[in-house]
């Protein structure tokens, strides 16, 4: 099924190959692993099964020296069979949690596959608990993997917060999207240098940090998977600053330029603030991306970062994109990146994994970006793969991370060159520092 017509502005109006079938996705609960680090007085209570608990513990690791800010209210067999009052049991678990953890100011009730299957109404539970615990803001959102990809957990979380924020008519910039602390600070430093403010970043670190939304608000996204967050902000009267996403030198400059234009920043000031980091980013990308030049890439839909990353790889690293799959495509959000991608690649939305595997095997791209479940089989078939999930857990935004981003994609090709002896892999030589790169089921592990 095809949608759209090819336009003159790059691939902004490119047709979409829409697929609906069996999907290979990671659970949306995964987003809690990075969100709980950003929201210092919040607690994420997953209402799910022991499998949900094991997933989170495995993804986050065992924290020995700090009490974590997430947990699981286990649904037992009696809950799943309807033999117990799950709402009453949830109330008891919340009461125990809040009596023990007086530091919690916002409690997220996070839906899972099991809680959604038994139709446990967490919105009703949140309303009831908000009335009972006046000093704690109780919010619910879904992290279920039934209909979502794993980055949608963050989107659902932010979208759940926005309706409860107070109204303001003040002129302000809101930046939505969780970033690693070092990248967060770099972003604020650039915006401050441009004289842009006040700036509010969602999510805020504390539940009572000042954050308000209204008709004077303009907002920019740092993550392309924030569809519901975008819609929630627009419903509150805010206006979106559409721009390519800040991956690589070009994307970061375009993102900052769009905000600078909105706030009337002069060209001279913009150049004074960005010239040095732009130069560093260009040089870092040029050095790290040498193995990527004239290579092909094939994206499976996984992280929702695929279109902006394809723009970075094709425009700044010299790669050719054969297919760019993304779980869902909202042109209002990723259109600026699509406009910069040259004609040629297939854009697919959704997934029928068997059909896409057939296309990937036929294309035999030099690099295939996919989920964990597909990487090992494709590696066994001789394809070089990149784990999509690593691109979410690694700092990759803005100028200072541009070289690292290129290196993440170059590393699998270097690994392949080492395994095949170097000479037969397009002249890519092993790293001279002799640390070694070990192949581990499609991953790259530096020894």
Description of the structure:
- The structure is a single chain.
- The protein is α/β, with parallel strands linked by helices.
- It has 3 domains: 189 residues, Nitrogenase molybdenum iron protein domain (Rossmann fold, 3-Layer(aba) Sandwich), CATH 3.40.50; 121 residues, 3-Layer(aba) Sandwich (Rossmann fold); 104 residues, Rossmann fold (3-Layer(aba) Sandwich).
- Helix content is 42%, strand content 18%.
- The protein is built from 17 helices and 17 strands.
- A 7-stranded mixed sheet has the order 1-2-13-12-11-14-15, with helices on both faces.
- Helix 7 packs parallel to helix 9, helix 10 packs antiparallel against helix 11 and helix 12 runs parallel beside helix 13.
- The longest helix is centred in the middle third of the chain and has 22 residues.
- The radius of gyration is 23 Å and the shape is globular.
- The protein starts with a strand and ends with a strand.
Low-confidence stretches: 1-8, 423-447
Shape: globular
Main β-sheet, spatial strand arrangement: 1-2-13-12-11-14-15
> What is the architecture of the largest domain at the second tier of CATH?
3-Layer(aba) Sandwich
Number of helices: 17
Domain count:
3
Please report which band the strand proportion falls in: under 5%, 5-15%, 15-25%, 25-35%, 35-45% or over 45%. 15-25%
* Biggest sheet character: 7 strands, mixed
What is the CATH class of the largest domain?
Alpha Beta
Q: State the fourth-level CATH superfamily of the largest domain.
A: Nitrogenase molybdenum iron protein domain
Helicity, as a percent range: 40-55%
Helix/strand structural class = alpha/beta
Q: Let me know the average pLDDT.
A: 87
* CATH fold-level assignment of the largest domain: Rossmann fold
Supply Rg. 23 Å
Kindly report how far apart the N and C termini lie: 46 Å
- Kindly state the number of beta strands: 17
């Amino acid at each position: 099924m095809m949608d759209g017509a090819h336009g003159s502005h790059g691939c902004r109006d490119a047709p979409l190959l829409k697929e609906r079938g069996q999907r290979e996705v990671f659970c949306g609960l995964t987003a809690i692993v990075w969100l709980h680090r950003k929201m210092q007085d919040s607690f994420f209570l997953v209402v799910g099964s022991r499998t949900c608990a094991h997933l989170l513990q495995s993804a986050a690791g065992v924290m020995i020296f700090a009490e974590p800010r997430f947990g699981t209210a286990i649904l037992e067999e009696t809950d799943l069979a309807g033999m117990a009052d799950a709402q009453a049991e949830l109330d008891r678990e919340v009461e125990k949690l809040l009596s023990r953890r007086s530091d919690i100011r916002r409690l997220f009730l996070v839906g899972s596959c099991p809680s959604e299957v038994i139709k446990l109404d967490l919105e009703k539970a949140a309303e009831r608990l908000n009335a009972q615990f006046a000093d704690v803001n109780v919010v619910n959102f879904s992290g279920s993997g039934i209909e979502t990809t794993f980055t949608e957990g963050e989107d659902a979380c932010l979208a759940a917060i926005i309706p409860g924020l107070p109204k303001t008519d003040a002129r302000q910039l809101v930046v939505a999207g969780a970033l690693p602390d070092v990248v967060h600070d770099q972003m604020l430093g650039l915006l401050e240098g441009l004289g842009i403010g006040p700036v509010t970043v969602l999510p805020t670190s504390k539940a009572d940090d000042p954050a308000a939304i209204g008709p004077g608000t303009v907002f920019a996204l740092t993550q392309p998977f924030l569809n519901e967050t975008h819609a929630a902000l627009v419903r509150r009267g805010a206006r979106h600053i559409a721009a390519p996403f800040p991956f690589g030198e070009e994307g970061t400059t375009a993102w900052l330029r769009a905000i600078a234009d909105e706030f009337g920043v002069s060209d001279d000031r913009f150049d004074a603030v960005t010239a040095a980091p732009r130069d560093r980013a260009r040089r870092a990308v040029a050095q790290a991306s040498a193995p990527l030049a004239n290579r092909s890439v094939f994206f499976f839909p996984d992280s929702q970062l695929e279109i902006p990353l394809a723009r970075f790889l094709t425009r700044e690293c010299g790669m050719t994109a054969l297919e760019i799959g993304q779980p869902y495509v909202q042109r209002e959000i990723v259109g600026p990146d699509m406009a910069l991608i040259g004609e040629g690649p297939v854009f697919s939305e959704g997934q029928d994994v068997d059909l896409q595997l057939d296309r990937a095997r036929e294309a035999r791209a030099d690099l295939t970006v996919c989920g964990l479940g597909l990487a090992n089989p494709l590696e066994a078939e001789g394809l070089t793969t990149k784990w999509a999930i690593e691109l979410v857990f690694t700092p990759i935004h803005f100028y200072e991370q541009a070289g690292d981003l290129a290196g993440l994609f170059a590393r699998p090709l270097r690994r392949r060159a080492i395994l095949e002896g170097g000479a037969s892999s397009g002249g890519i030589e092993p790293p001279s520092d002799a640390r070694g790169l070990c192949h581990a089921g499609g991953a790259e592990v530096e020894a």
